[in-house]
Design the sequence.
C-alpha cells in the first residue's frame, strides 16, 4: 500500500492527466445519466369557437380578443416553465378535442411549441357548436392517447352553444378529472361577438337570434363560404347583437362535477405560479445531462498538475524582500 501511495505521488501528473482524459471521454461518449424525477406534462387546450373572438380582455392596456388573450397566457405558461417540462397543444370545437402534437420537452422544442400557439385561430374549428360537456369526454380520450400521463389545462370562456339543459346535459359524475384544470377567459360583462367572413375580415356582429339557428353565434359551419358571401348574417342594430361573457359559474359547476380545478386566467405572477404548482403528472426515468460536470472535473485535474509549481511560485513571491524606498 505504501509503495502504491509513493508511486502515485511520484507520478501524480500522469495520474491527473489520465483521470482528466477519462472525464473528457465520459463527457464525449456518455454525457447523460438516468435519474428518477417528477415530470410536469401539460396538455394545453384552446377553445376556438367564435365566442372566443369577443374583445373583453386587456393586454398592455388595450382590449384584445379572448383568443389573443388565451395565446398570450399559453405562451407565458410555456416561458415560465423550467427545462424538463413537457407540453402538447390541442383545440376544442363543437364536441371534440383535436390534438396538434404529442408532448415535447420545452427547452429543446420551445420554438415549435410557441409557434403552434401563435397560430391558434377560430378558423381551426371544424364545426360550429360548442358543447363543453361533450368536449370534456373527448379531452379525456385524447389524454389517454398520449404516451405519458398529463395535466390537462383547458382555456375557455365557458359559453356553451346550445346551452345546457335537462335534455342535452351529459352525466360526467363517474369521471375522475383530478388532473384537469379549467382556465376561464373573458370579461364578466356581456359583450357582442364579432362576425368574420371566410377571409377572416370583420363584417359586423352576430345577431341575437343566432342562438336559434346557429347555436349562439358559433353554429355555422366555418368553411361553408356560401354562409359568408355575399351577405353574411350580422346584427342590423346594436340591440340585436348576441352577447357573451365569461361563464365562470358554469365552469366552476363543471369542474366540481368531475373533481377538477378552476381558475380565472389572469396575466399575473400568481396565475403562472398556480400552474407551475400543479401536482406532477408522473415520475419518469429521464436522461440528465452532466457533461458540464465531467468537463469541469477534467479542467480542475489539469489545473491540479500545475498546482505545486504555482504554489512554489507564490511562496517565492511572498518571501521576496520588499524594496526600500530610495
Sequence:
Amino acid at each position: 500500500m505504501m509503495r502504491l501511495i509513493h508511486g502515485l505521488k511520484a507520478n501524480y501528473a500522469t495520474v491527473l492527466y489520465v483521470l482528466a482524459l477519462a472525464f473528457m471521454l465520459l463527457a464525449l461518449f456518455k454525457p447523460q445519466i438516468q435519474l428518477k424525477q417528477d415530470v410536469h406534462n401539460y396538455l394545453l387546450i384552446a377553445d376556438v369557437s367564435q365566442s372566443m373572438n369577443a374583445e373583453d380582455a386587456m393586454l398592455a392596456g388595450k382590449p384584445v380578443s379572448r383568443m389573443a388573450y388565451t395565446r398570450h397566457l399559453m405562451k407565458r405558461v410555456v416561458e415560465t416553465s423550467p427545462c424538463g417540462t413537457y407540453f402538447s397543444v390541442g383545440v376544442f370545437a363543437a364536441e371534440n378535442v383535436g390534438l396538434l402534437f404529442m408532448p415535447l420537452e420545452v427547452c429543446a422544442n420551445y420554438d415549435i411549441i410557441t409557434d403552434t400557439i401563435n397560430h391558434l385561430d377560430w378558423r381551426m374549428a371544424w364545426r360550429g357548436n360548442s358543447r363543453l360537456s361533450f368536449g370534456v369526454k373527448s379531452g379525456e380520450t385524447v389524454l389517454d392517447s398520449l404516451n405519458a400521463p398529463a395535466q390537462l389545462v383547458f382555456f375557455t370562456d365557458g359559453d356553451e352553444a346550445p346551452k345546457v339543459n335537462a335534455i342535452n346535459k351529459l352525466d360526467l359524475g363517474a369521471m375522475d378529472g383530478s388532473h384537469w384544470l379549467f382556465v376561464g377567459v373573458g370579461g364578466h360583462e356581456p359583450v357582442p361577438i364579432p362576425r368574420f367572413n371566410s377571409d377572416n375580415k370583420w363584417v359586423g356582429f352576430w345577431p341575437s337570434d343566432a342562438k336559434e339557428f346557429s347555436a349562439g353565434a358559433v353554429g355555422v359551419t366555418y368553411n361553408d363560404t356560401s354562409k359568408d358571401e355575399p351577405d353574411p348574417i350580422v346584427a342590423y342594430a346594436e340591440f340585436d347583437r348576441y352577447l357573451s361573457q365569461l361563464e365562470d359559474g358554469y365552469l366552476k359547476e363543471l369542474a366540481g362535477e368531475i373533481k377538477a380545478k378552476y381558475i380565472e386566467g389572469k396575466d399575473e405572477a400568481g396565475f403562472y405560479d398556480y400552474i407551475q404548482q400543479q401536482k406532477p403528472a408522473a415520475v419518469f426515468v429521464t436522461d440528465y445531462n452532466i457533461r458540464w460536470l465531467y468537463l469541469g472535473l477534467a479542467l480542475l485535474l489539469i489545473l491540479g498538475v500545475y498546482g505545486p509549481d504555482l504554489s512554489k511560485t507564490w511562496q517565492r513571491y511572498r518571501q521576496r524582500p520588499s524594496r526600500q524606498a530610495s
In short: Residues 111 and 200 are 26 Å apart (CA to CA).
